[in-house]
Design a protein that fits this description.
This protein is of the alpha+beta class. Helix content is 23%, strand content 20%. The protein has nine helices and eleven strands. The structure holds 2-oxoglutaric acid and fe (ii) ion (FE2). The site of 2-oxoglutaric acid (AKG) has 11 residues, from strand 4, strand 10 and strand 11.
Length: 286
Amino acid sequence: MTDTFSDYADCTPLIDDREALDRFYDEHGYLYLRGVLDRDLVRTAAEQMLEGLIALGHAAPGTTLETLTIESFEAVDEVAMHDYVKYDDLWNHPSTLKVWEKAFGEPVFVFKSTTIRYYPSAAGAAGSEEPHFLTPLHQDGFYIGPNKDFRTAWIPLLPTTPGTGGVALADGSHKKGPREHVVTENFRRFGHPVRGIPAEEFGADERLLFSPMEPGDVLLFHAYMCHKSIPNVSADPAAMRMSMDTRVQPATSHRGFNSLTPWPESAKDASKGILSKITGTPTTIE
Ligand SMILES: O=C(O)CCC(=O)C(=O)O
Ligand SMILES: [Fe+2]
């Protein structure tokens, strides 16, 4: 598997064609929908993220989204940031719910857990390694369950480019089902090594996909879709990568720990849900 990317296929023209949407999703494991979310709502979330970064002292008062940059993602109190970004208002806005319901073809439930990402450019930083808080190739279904009928919803809050990075998807890689995840020392979260899928496990047909995205665009992908972070190495200008991701599932499905527990709550307890997988702490809760 090489790090040359093909574009995500634009599924927006399929949005009102139930069968075509499902056919594409079953075959490729994702839907890329452009300009379907209310841009003002997305902008509001971006501004809330900026407000949090200013309030917590990581950007000067008066900084705008156009001029924003921060020293370090990890220096920011991630739990405190969750008080600023009112993502549930965006995820559950009637106009957003309509998009989820078109994608699923049925009523949905949006997870209470959201990951918020505000990654400055690592261009010019010491060392050539990728920042270790990024994610290696993985399936969200490895970390999240017990039911695997959720889809990850990934949205940019600011435009993404090949320089700012984002998320790369391995086309059709959901079709092989759950894969083994092994410890990769290059990636750590909460001080613990994060498991990932070795690149050798991928077939030539499982091409890595990545395209620039605009606020209002959304990627929805399968619990077994293999995906990874693309680092922010933007320069001239060095831009922030700001994005958020949550999970959406059919309203009638079982609601597991991560679906019901807001991120700041689950971050407190390394023995539950996604944290237990990351830290390696045994748990009976998923
Ligand atoms: O945004 C990223 O860097 C990784 C995204 C990811 O792993 C996810 O949304 O599940
Ligand atoms: Fe993920």
